[in-house]
Structures are given as structure tokens and as C-alpha cells.
Amino acid sequence: MPKWIDRTTAVAFSSIVIALIVMGIKYTAYLMTGSVALYSDALESIVNLVTALTAFWAIQVSRKPADSDHQFGHHKAEYFSAVLEGVLIILAALLILREAWIAYQAGHQPENAISGLAVNSVATVINGAWAMFLFRFGRRRRSPAFIAEAWHLTSDVISSLGVLVGLLLVVATGWAALDSLVAVLVAGNILWSGWRVVRDSVSGLLDEAVSKQVEQEIRSIISAEAEGALEVHDLRTRHAGRATFIEFHLVVPGAITVSAAHEICDRLEAALQRAVEGAEVLIHVEPDTEARHQGVIVL
């Protein structure tokens, strides 16, 4: 692999390639059958491609180092990508509802349903396998863009399974309206997926704190590694993409030297960065006259 292509970039680019392949397979299945349910599945795959392209862009931006205009880095770019993905997902659902209504009024009967479903199932298997990989990879790298994409692919797989069941019922019963009904159910699932992606991404943009479990781990590390200090108060945390910002006030004896206080801070910073991936630690040192003795970590 060339030096300019790392694993994260390779995975993001692979998502684009897979989205193109899946889109082609699903559109072929739709052309074979004329099914509005399969059309809805193919339409969602177009959104998959757009979200993969958006995620690729956002990941590259988020990894840029801090500069004079963005002194805290570009970590939040992935949240903007995830919000856009959620909006596109919702738009796709509304388009599917429109097509379902048109097909219901026309009373169109799908053709070659079994053959079309066989072709579509290949795309479903590909999406399912890639979604599982993206969940693992995105959580390991703490990437909102990859996780949002994985959730979207999961909703796509669920939708495809619903289409499979619905078209089999159409074949078994001859009731053409079931095709439109399945498309409506697919749209409902996509709407829920889009709302979930937008909700989680907006939380990140609003500087959501770490979980209670992670916060307790941070407190334990501070308590264990802050020998020589008196207490910690005003502990605050926030997520920004792969980065976790940790800030707190460290109270030390008034007579301690600057060098000794700096050594305590270095020890705390190193311990937190080992335990919390992507930790950015800011410590404000205060003399013992600032001690609060309440609602704080007493060391």
C-alpha cells in the first residue's frame, strides 16, 4: 500500500467502490422486475454512494492538523458528514413514499420477481458484511462517519429483507398492492435510521460529554496518578470526532515548585492518553487556597 494511503483512507475509498457495485446490482434487479419495492431498495443504494463519498471527504478533513484558523483541529468534520447522511436518508425515504403511492394507484404487477430477488440478495449479502466490518472499524477508530454509514447500511439490509418477504408474498398471493405496501414499510425503516443518525451527530456537534463509565475511569486515573496534589475539581469532558477533550483544575500545595507541579501534570496527561484514545488534556493548576473539599476528587 502506498505511503499516502493508510488503512482509514483505504476503508473509506472501499465504501465508495462497494456502494457503486451494490447500486448496479440493485438497479439491475429493479429493471428485471419493475417492482416499486426493488426500486426503493435501488434508490437507497444511491444514497449509500453519496454518503460514502461524503464520509470519505469528511474523514480526510477531520484528520488535518490544527492550524491558525482551526486551533483545536478539524475533528468535528465527521459530524457534519453524519448529519448530511441522515438528511439524505430521510430524503430517500420521502421519494420512496412518493413512488409507492404512484405504483399503488397504477396497480402494477412485478415481473420475474424470483429472478430479481435472487439478484438483489447478492447486494444484500455484500451490504450486510460491509456494515458489520464498518461497525467494528468505526468503533475502534471512534469515527462518527463510519458508524453512521454502518447504521445506514444496516437499515438498507433490513429494508432488503423486507422487500424479499413482500415480493414473495406478491408472487404467492398475486396481490400487486403488497409491492407498494412493502415500499412504504421500507421508507418507514429508512426514516427511523435517518433520524437516529441525525440525532447522534447533533449530540456530537453540541459537545456531548463522555459516558458515565468513561468519566468514572478518568476520575480513577486522576486519583491514582496525581500523587503530590490535593484535589481536582471542575472536571469537564466533550467528544469531537475521534478526539476526547478532558479539562480540570488541579489543586496543589501553595509551596510546591512550578517544576514539581508540571511533573504531576505530565504524569496525569500521559496516563489519561494511554487510557482514553485520542485524549486531549488541559489542566489548570491552582494553589491550595482554591480547594473546595466538596463534590471533587480528594487525593
From TrEMBL:
* Protein's GO biological process: intracellular zinc ion homeostasis
* Start and end residues of each Cation efflux protein cytoplasmic domain: 212-287
Superkingdom assignment: Bacteria
- Coiled coil feature spans: none
Chief subcellular location equals membrane
Q: Name one Pfam family in it.
A: Cation_efflux
Instruction: Say if the entry is tagged with keyword Chaperone.
Output: no
Instruction: Please give an example of a GO cellular component term from this record.
Output: plasma membrane
Compartment(s) of residence: Cell membrane
Q: GO terms for molecular function, please?
A: cadmium ion transmembrane transporter activity; ferrous iron transmembrane transporter activity; zinc efflux antiporter activity
Instruction: List residues traversing the bilayer.
Output: 12-30, 36-59, 79-97, 117-137, 157-175
Q: Does the UniProt entry include the keyword Transport?
A: yes
Domain Cation efflux protein transmembrane residues, every copy:
13-206
The alphabetical list of record keywords is: Cell membrane, Membrane, Transmembrane, Transmembrane helix, Transport
The record describes its membrane topology as: Multi-pass membrane protein
Q: Which PANTHER family match?
A: MITOCHONDRIAL METAL TRANSPORTER 1-RELATED
The family assignment reads:
Belongs to the cation diffusion facilitator (CDF) transporter (TC 2.A.4) family.
Q: Per its record, how is this protein called by name? A: Protein p34
